Amino acid sequence: MVLAHDTTAALTTAAAFINTGVGSPDTLRTPADLDRFLDEQQFSGSRAHTLGELRAVRHLRALLAQLWTADEVALADGVNQLLRNSRALPQVLRHDNWGWHLHCTSPAAPLEERMATEAAMALADVLRGGELGRLGICDAPDCSAVTLDLTRNRSKRYCDTGNCGNREHVRSYRTRRAGRETSPRPAKGP
Ligand SMILES: [Zn+2]
Ligand SMILES: [Zn+2]
Predict the structure, then answer these.
(1) 160 CA to middle of ligand 2, Å?
(2) Domain-by-domain residue ranges, the chain?
(3) How close is the Cα of 46 to the center of ligand 2, in Å?
């Protein structure tokens, strides 16, 4: 199943959102940090710019991080809970440069509810399409960032937060080269 464009956009935002919390320092510590993140992600609608809003958003982030690696049943439960708690009401809209896509709350609903329903609806699509394999964790040993694999051949292994792919590439190259240099030469046959 091919995921809809608004689904992949929402999943990309959700992965970036979760990954703001995996490094140190956390990159969502202030309302200004949150503004910057939402602008980067072109997330529209109202914002309170309060610490309460930030706290609610960070709570949502922790929930989504758990769901990203949950099994199907736990993911479905989590998605339903997010949709229920936000009193989601799906509406199809188009605005700005976005074609037809779903909104599940009004633009005036609290930010965390709008972020929750957007992520939850996208995760519902992932479940419906049997595409859970697209949600993962970075393969680099010292990294716990989440990954979203949108490649055709399911080849994504590393996160987008830093340099994990390059770093691992260099590491495995060095390991291979070291292995070649220390391994005994094959004995010559008689
Ligand atoms: Zn929209
Ligand atoms: Zn990584």
Answers:
(1) 7
(2) 5-132
(3) 32
